[in-house]
Design goal:
heterodimer, A: 658 residues, mainly alpha, two-stranded antiparallel ribbon, 26 helices, B: 509 residues, 20 helices
């Protein structure tokens, strides 16, 4: 395939959903079936092109890197030109497939899930714009260009979380998501400021080259790296900016699957993966630590949630933590590989939960479910595959490969991080089994919900089956595509070695592998026992564990804390500044006014001899004007006039003196 | 015929027509004249030589020879990219405001005459190259604005108009004092000449020369700076703005925010900074601090507002802080960003004030707390308002994004990095108050009052004719920033930045 063809493919990948958005937004309501076929066609075109690109990337081997452009966008100074451009390498290729494939399946799923919604067509329009923005982000060859996609996916996320904006909860959740990620974006802006000044260009290659040459002074390079991670933590819901993601579940479930599980929330991981060559070791330590902590804390919280989507949300936060842990410990491939596998199995589980919610007539509380497997077998079995994958059941699921890679990486760097990660792995398997059992196994807990439950239509089950199949086979496939792209500067030699033999790495870290397997299977079994077969016998344990459960259920009171120390004080500060502005800043103006009037009155007669005739004439005129004004309103007027006259006099006096 | 004089005085012809023809034609004359002005401005822009340095379309005429110097005060106009971009903005925003003035019912003749007089004053300011002429236009613009707010304004219009008039007059007087000092020292009324002298002064390290590093120059700079800062308006000289906006009729608010505020920034770029580069360097820290306060504090105060229009007014204070922040950094990107922010804010703020005007026309109040769910009754209006909000808070695809990024990068490259980092906080608060307002005004439940389709129709064709062009230009500037940037970059790169750099070096010695 020639470069020109590849470039055209990239343009089609981008243009199709953009055009789809434009048409759907303007004409969607008038099209047949609300325009869903149009948008499915558009994202389908994108998907086909992405697959072709990925195939080409696979053929191209490790050296596959193409850059299209850069095209000059704006010249901000004589030495600094900002460009836009496209970069294609293994990482991009994988991301393209992940984004377009999940998006395509979510589109299909939504035709059934969103059926009958008054804003049906609009929903698809926003899905299209989101897909476009995400693809812009992924294809960018420079940080500024990436940042534009980054902000646009934020907008789409805002619109889609708040899709049902007649209700307060989605509105507040959407706003919280936008503002929390924007706090993270401060870091991105900081990085852009630092790099824009020090490098003069935002192209990745230029930044990496400058960093390697030492053109960016050490503290600023560190700060830029931390800034990038701050942005990534906001987008990918890492501690302490994770609070928005669980609330984002107020959005329609297909949105949760696409944006808040598979793609947008992974953008932070992608950013760190992409920018890895400029990150200093200190930044890496921060990334790994935050990632590990997030994996653990979110896992703990997930254990005590009863809303099926919230469990999945915290699980997403936790899994994103794993990805950062992987990147932070230098297991670059494993981290990004986990992004890929997670995208599929988490999209699978979210869509599965959507199928459950749909089948149970918009019931999301797992305490009212149970025994649904017989009612909705396809959903249950595909969901189980997702559970096994996230738990990392060995050899047959993709989650095994990626999680094992991360834990091996951590093991070699820092035992503490490894143990935290391993603990998190037990938790993951445990709460996922809890979710599965509470939903699909055992006796129905709410007869009404159960009686009316039904399996979902084909438009929903087929995407589930496809995702389940991908969850099983994507492991080896994506692993090899990703391996094509060891980015320059990320200790390529070491990472390349990991590529050479997956088996060899497992051999090296055989212990780690068995521990990971034990953690996953152990967690699953424990969950099965605690929540299913030994449920009654273990009920006695409930009371002593209540305080812990309380802390988990209340999400460690992060929201309450932020409300008390950030949100309320911010509003209070706003009100205080408002009063300050009215009373002091403007009050001073009025005070000067009143003072001026008095001074003018006192000195008016007295000064006549001092100032020359011209001034007096102007003064008279002004006073008359002042009379008109004070007739109109208050007496503040004259004071200003006095100031004016005084200043004019000063100027004229100066003229005399000079 | 295609001269700057034609451009500037065309509105006066329209004004005369308004005066002699029946008042029912006034609004048509206003729109036609404004449109013609825009056409002339665009034609001039097309005819402009993009590569030529300095001022083009220059015109001279003797006016008051012998005052101070031999040539004395002249009628001297000319334009470069800086002036041209702002002239285009002025003509464009004025045309949209003229359309928005369609249903002014109170004394339409007087209103449209004042409107056109204002247009002459504004255009004049951007093309005048003689200091006296500049000052005359500066003052010419003041009077019609005073009447437009004072006669056609809201309930507290008299207080607001007098406050506006006197506050800006106070600024003008300081400006005049500065001008007089400059003219007496340099013996020249010509802006290019004085700039050249300033350039020579720093180029030869002539710290004691005509415009060197003296206390008097510093005083003159501070005077001029305050004069322009009142117009920007810069913290702490901003309190006239919310009052003026709240009382002004919608089209006047559009002009006020879209164009008038830009005169402050223009004055700084064209006069205060090039004339006194060393004083500008010396004051850099103070100006940066005040700018950061304007950005962050302005955003906080905006967040606490209960009146929709006051909120938008404070957002202007916050956004115009970027202009002075970029300038004070004295880097090419910073000044570039400052200029871009002026243009971006010009169309976006005009759009925002129109958005407020649309709902005020229907609801006759602006209490944010009393609104809600308007998106469900006025869907098109909701789309336009959301776009205006998001572009104002710096969403990519709109001009505000470019302006913010370029300004931040520029400010960060300047001497006051920490301040630039603090200013970043402003973007979070800005997002907070816009999204909160969007939610409280447009989302959730619709109160019964607003469900009356007859009283709350969606945006009309005329309102669309105002909003859509502003939106299109905002998006165009967000996607193709080079059009504007290439137009005005000459003066910044060739004159202002070298001047400020040399002045910084002198200061360092």
């Amino acid at each position: 395939m020639s470069d020109a063809t590849l470039q055209t493919l990239c343009f089609v990948v981008l243009a199709a959903p953009l055009l789809g958005f434009a048409l759907q937004y303007t004409l969607g309501r008038r099209l047949a079936k609300g325009g869903d076929l149009l948008t499915i066609g558009a994202i389908g075109a994108s998907l086909v092109c992405s697959l072709l690109i990925a195939y080409e990337a696979l053929q191209g081997g490790a050296e596959f890197t193409k850059t299209f452009g850069p095209w000059t966008w704006l010249q901000v100074s004589e030495t600094s030109t900002w460009t836009i451009g496209i970069t294609l390498d293994g990482l991009t290729a994988v991301m393209l497939v992940v984004v377009t494939l999940v998006s395509f399946l979510v589109h299909v799923f939504s035709t059934a899930y969103m059926k009958g919604d008054p804003k049906y067509g609009l929903f698809f329009a926003w899905l299209q714009l989101f897909s476009f923005s995400m693809l812009v982000l992924v294809l960018a060859n420079n940080l500024l260009h990436l940042f534009m996609g980054w902000e646009l996916v934020g907008l789409c996320s805002y619109k889609l979380i708040g899709f049902w904006s007649e209700k307060p909860a989605p509105c507040n959740a959407a706003r919280k998501a936008f503002i929390t990620t924007r706090i993270g974006d401060l870091g991105m802006m900081l990085a852009i400021c630092i790099l824009g000044g020090a490098v003069g260009s935002f192209e990745f290659e230029a930044i990496f080259a400058a960093a390697a040459r030492g053109d960016i002074a050490e503290p600023w390079l560190l700060l830029a790296g931390l800034g990038l991670f701050m942005a990534a933590a906001g987008k990918s819901a890492q501690l302490p900016l994770h609070v928005w993601l669980p609330d984002a579940m107020e959005g329609p479930t297909p949105v949760s699957a696409l944006i808040h599980a598979a793609t947008m929330v992974a953008a932070g991981v992608y950013l760190i993966g992409r920018m890895a060559p400029m990150l200093t070791p200190d930044v890496m330590v921060v990334i790994a630590t935050v990632g590990a902590m997030t994996a653990l804390v979110a896992g703990l919280i997930a254990m005590a949630q009863n809303d099926i989507k919230r469990v999945l949300a915290y699980s997403t936060v936790s899994q994103l933590g794993y990805m950062f842990l992987g990147l932070g410990v230098g297991a670059w491939h494993a981290g990004l590989f986990h992004l890929t596998t997670h995208a599929f199995f988490k999209a699978l589980m979210f869509l599965g939960s959507g199928s459950v919610i749909h089948g149970c007539h918009h019931e999301q509380d797992m305490r009212k479910m149970g025994g649904l497997r017989k009612k909705m077998p396809i959903t249950a079995w595909t969901f189980l595959i997702g559970v096994l994958a996230i738990a990392g059941v060995p050899w047959i699921t993709s989650g095994f490969y990626s999680k094992d890679g991360i834990l091996s990486g951590a093991y070699g760097v820092n035992p503490l991080l490894f143990w935290i990660g391993l603990g998190g792995a037990v938790l993951t398997a445990f709460y996922m089994m809890r979710l599965y059992v509470m939903t699909f196994e055992g006796e129905p807990r709410d007869a009404q919900v159960h009686d009316h439950a039904h399996e979902s239509p084909k438009a929903m089950t087929v995407p589930l089956i496809v995702l389940a199949a991908l969850t099983l086979i994507i492991g080896p496939l994506a692993w090899h595509t990703l391996m094509l792209a060891p980015p320059t500067g990320v200790e390529p030699a070491a990472l390349w070695a990991t590529l050479q033999s997956l088996e060899a790495e497992h051999h090296h870290a055989g212990t780690v592998m068995w521990m990971a397997i034990a953690a996953g299977i152990g967690g699953l079994l424990l969950g099965w026992l605690v929540f299913h077969t030994r449920r009654e016998k273990l009920a006695a344990l409930k009371a002593p564990l209540a305080p812990l459960e309380n802390a988990f259920a209340n999400k460690f009171w992060f929201d309450e804390l932020y409300d008390a120390v950030l949100i309320r004080p911010a509003y209070a500060l706003g009100r205080a500044f408002k009063v300050l502005d009215e009373r002091v800043v403007d009050g001073l103006v009025n005070l000067v006014g009143r003072g001026g009037v008095t001074t003018g009155d006192v000195s008016g007669a007295h000064d006549r001899g001092v100032v020359d005739g011209l001034v007096r004439a102007i003064g008279h005129a002004c006073q008359r004007l002042g009379g008109v004004f004070s007739a109109l309103q208050s007496g503040r007027v004259r004071l200003y006039l006095s100031i004016s006259v005084g200043a004019l006099a000063l100027a004229l006096l100066l003229e005399h003196l000079l | 015929m295609l001269t700057l004089t034609t451009l500037v005085f065309l509105p006066l012809v329209g004004m005369l027509l308004c005066a002699v023809l029946p008042s029912k034609h006034a609004r048509v004359i206003n729109i036609a004249t404004s449109a013609l002005v825009l056409v002339v401005a665009v034609l001039l822009w097309i005819r402009m030589d993009p590569d030529a340095a300095g001022y083009q379309f220059q015109e001279f005429a003797a006016w008051l020879p012998g005052v101070v110097s031999e040539t004395g005060i002249q009628y001297y106009v000319g334009i470069d990219g800086i002036g041209m971009s702002l002239v285009l903005l002025t003509a464009f925003v004025s045309l949209t405001a003229a359309i928005a003035s369609w249903n002014i019912e109170k004394q339409p003749k007087g209103y449209h005459m004042m409107f056109l007089l204002l247009l002459t004053g504004m255009l004049g300011v951007f093309v005048a190259l003689d200091l006296f002429l500049f000052y005359v236009f500066w003052e010419v613009m003041l009077l019609p604005m005073y009447f437009l707010i004072g006669i056609w304004g809201g309930p507290r219009r008299q207080y607001a108009s007098i406050k506006f008039f006197l506050y800006t007059l106070f600024g003008s007087v300081l400006l005049l004092a500065g001008v007089i000092l400059v003219v007496l020292k340099t013996q020249s009324w010509s802006i290019p000449e004085v700039t050249e002298m300033a350039r020579n002064a720093v180029a030869f390290g002539n710290t004691g020369g005509v415009l060197g590093d003296s206390a008097l120059c510093l005083a003159a700079f501070i005077g001029m700076f305050i004069g322009f800062a009142v117009k920007v308006p810069m913290f702490p000289f901003h309190t006239w703005l919310p009052d003026a906006h709240v009382e002004a009729p919608t089209p006047v608010s559009m002009i006020l925010a879209g164009v008038l505020l830009k005169m402050g920034g223009y004055g700084l770029i064209r006069i205060a900074y090039p004339f006194f580069p060393q004083a500008a360097v010396a004051c850099g820290l103070v100006i940066s601090i005040l700018s950061v306060i304007a950005i962050v504090y302005g955003a906080f105060v905006a967040m606490a507002q209960t009146d929709f229009k006051r909120l938008i007014a404070y957002s202007s204070v916050s956004h115009m802080g970027f202009v002075t922040l970029g300038l004070a950094a004295m880097t090419a990107q910073g000044i570039n960003g400052a200029m871009y922010m002026m243009l971006a804010h010009g169309t976006i703020s005009a759009m925002l004030f129109m958005i407020v005007g649309v709902i005020y026309d229907r609801a006759h109040h602006r209490e944010i707390a009393k609104f809600g769910g308007l998106a469900w009754v006025m869907p098109k209006y909701f789309i336009l308002a959301s776009l205006a909000f998001f572009f104002s808070l710096g969403l990519p695809g709109g001009s505000g994004f470019i302006a913010e990024i370029v300004t931040f990068v520029g400010a960060f490259a300047g001497p006051y990095r920490t301040l630039a980092i603090i200013a970043l906080l402003g973007i979070v608060i800005t997002a907070a108050y816009y999204l909160r307002t969007l939610q409280r005004v447009f989302l959730l439940d619709t109160p019964e009052v607003y469900k009356d389709k007859a009283k709350f129709p969606d945006v009309t064709g005329r309102e669309l004719a105002v909003l859509v062009p502003l939106l299109v230009v905002t998006v165009y500037m967000g996607i193709v920033p080079s059009t504007a940037m290439d137009l005005y970059h000459g003066f910044i790169h060739e004159t202002l930045v070298p001047l400020l750099e040399q002045a910084s070096e002198l200061g360092a010695k």
